[in-house]
Amino acid sequence: MDEARHVVVTGEVQGVGFRAWTRDVAEELDVAGWVRNRPDGTVEAHLEGSGDALSRMIDRLNAGPPAGRVDDIAAEAARPENAVDFEIRG
């Protein structure tokens, strides 16, 4: 059974390709869900997959893409939305 996490990433995470990079990593790790920019300059994501895949995904998010800088990640358990793929939202 898949698990889900709600994640908020702070740092230099907008305007650096963070959402597209997140989608690529999610597809590589077989994680479904979505990612979007928030008005406060953070990036928010909903992740669904196996516990192991989610742990690896959060580790990768903590490192971030080469052009960005991650200062902090807040991750908490979430209710699965039965996502089947990974999308970038507005």
Q: Give the overall pLDDT as a whole number.
A: 96
Q: What percentage of the residues does DSSP assign to strands (E)? A: 35-45%
What composes the largest sheet? 5 strands, mixed
Helix content: 25-40%
Describe the protein's architecture and organization:
This protein has 90 residues and is an alpha+beta fold. Helix content is 28%, strand content 40%. It is built from two helices and five strands, in the order βαββαββ. The protein has helices at 18-29, 51-63, and strands at residues 3-12, 32-37, 43-49, 69-77, 86-89. It has a five-stranded mixed β-sheet, with helices on one face. A hairpin with a 5-residue loop joins strand 2 and strand 3. Helix 1 (18-29) packs antiparallel against helix 2. 27% of the residues are buried. The model has no long low-confidence stretch (mean pLDDT 96).
Itemize the secondary structure elements and their pairings.
Blueprint: E1 3-12, H1 18-29, E2 32-37, E3 43-49, H2 51-63, E4 69-77, E5 86-89
Parallel strand pairs: 2-5
Antiparallel strand pairs: 1-3, 1-4, 2-3
Helix pairs in contact: 1-2
